[in-house]
């Protein structure tokens, strides 16, 4: 019997984690990435314990700990006064409660760790310059077509090709993601450019009318990742590499706390990115093809969970293929296991955006009073997300080989 062959479209954080989990589970994998070179954008990402538990299973957690920052706390603050409105402590008690630390990491560093993990497990698995243009059933197999006219066949295809997924389009037809009316300005700033002591080892989330501003440390505390989100109906370009205008960013955050002014003043450049999401999709799977990560559940970044959910998806997909007899049943089980949780996170991220951007003074006063009366509000709100343990829920990946892991000869 030959091992099941899984073709993954997209070598982003989700696709690479899937490749490592599937390989670790004993399957043959190929990853097809449209970009001619591997890489990620120069920005930060927050990785919470629910995702760290998966990264441990593919041997990435120790290296993550070496390159990332472990923040002491996450703080919500008032945009003008700087008053701390809510706080999640991330110290030893947090690690004991959730079974893993919370990290702030450079996306390129996490991406490189995942590439290395895939290359350790399956040295030639990643094919670059391979832009998928369509997927179709081919008897008991699935065929993937590429822009250069070539094709590949496998037993299973996983579309991990992001918010504009071609695989999704092939399965379910065209449907544009929803522009949320929000745009994010992103930048990184060397900590050495800022006054000593201004930025502590914490995640800061400053809340103001129609805007919020997030910043946290990366790369052992040498770099500050900044994300300023504002509401703009006219800007719709979704691209990690579109240069923003620092004057525009400064104007959007006029009157904000001096810390925000200092961060913007220290920036050389910024990038501007329109924020899209989707309604939860009714289906992710069709026959032997399924979707993963932003391809099926793009979400606003306001719970910092888009990549964490893709990482969880990857693990559950591998376990379902390991434990269910028959590919189609396994993919249906994966979708059924994941959809309720990620749909709730998608909708939760949207709701949090509204709360962060309150502009009516009475509504702001009511929100802040609620935070003051209930200091654990934020942690309680995130508890069900952080506490989730895919390994406990679905079992370890390195289970003994069973017939369900193999297709017919
Ligand atoms: C401002 C902002 C902040 C965020 N912060 C966080 C955070 O703190 N924590 C968190 O968990 N999430 C965060 N997210 C969300 C996170 O970035 C995404 O959810 C995550 O990157 C999705 O990963 P993915 O692998 O599914 O898709 P992507 O990262 O989009 O990767 C898709 C890959 O597929 C490739 N591809 C696309 N089309 C094709 C094709 N046709 N053929 C071959 N390859 C193709 C692409 O080149 C890419 O490499 C944030 C998002 C934004 C916008």
Topology:
Elements: E1 5-9, H1 13-24, E2 28-32, E3 44-47, H2 49-57, H3 61-67, E4 73-78, E5 84-89, H4 92-98, E6 103-106, H5 107-121, E7 126-127, E8 132-138, E9 141-146, E10 151-154, E11 156-159, H6 166-172, E12 178-190, E13 203-208, E14 211-218, E15 223-231, H7 246-252, H8 258-265, E16 271-277, E17 289-291, H9 306-323, H10 327-356, H11 361-373, H12 377-387, H13 390-394
Helix pairs in contact: 1-5, 1-9, 2-9, 9-10
Offer a few descriptive terms.
13 helices; 409 residues; seven-stranded mixed sheet; binds flavin-adenine dinucleotide; FAD/NAD(P)-binding domain; globular; single chain; alpha/beta
CATH third-tier fold name: FAD/NAD(P)-binding domain
Question: From the alpha-carbon coordinates, what is the Rg to the nearest angstrom?
Answer: 21 Å
Q: List the helices and strands in order.
A: EHEEHHEEHEHEEEEEHEEEEHHEEHHHHH
With strands numbered from the N-terminus, the spatial order across the biggest sheet is: 5-4-13-14-15-12-16
The low-pLDDT segments are: 399-409
For CATH, the homologous superfamily is named as: FAD/NAD(P)-binding domain
Bound molecules: flavin-adenine dinucleotide
Largest sheet: 7 strands, mixed
Strand content: 15-25%
Oligomeric state of the chains present here: single chain
Q: Just name the CATH architecture.
A: 3-Layer(bba) Sandwich
Through-space gap between termini: 4 Å
Domain module tally: 1
Helix percent band? 25-40%
Mean pLDDT: 93
What is the class in the CATH system? Alpha Beta
Query: What's the overall geometry?
Result: globular
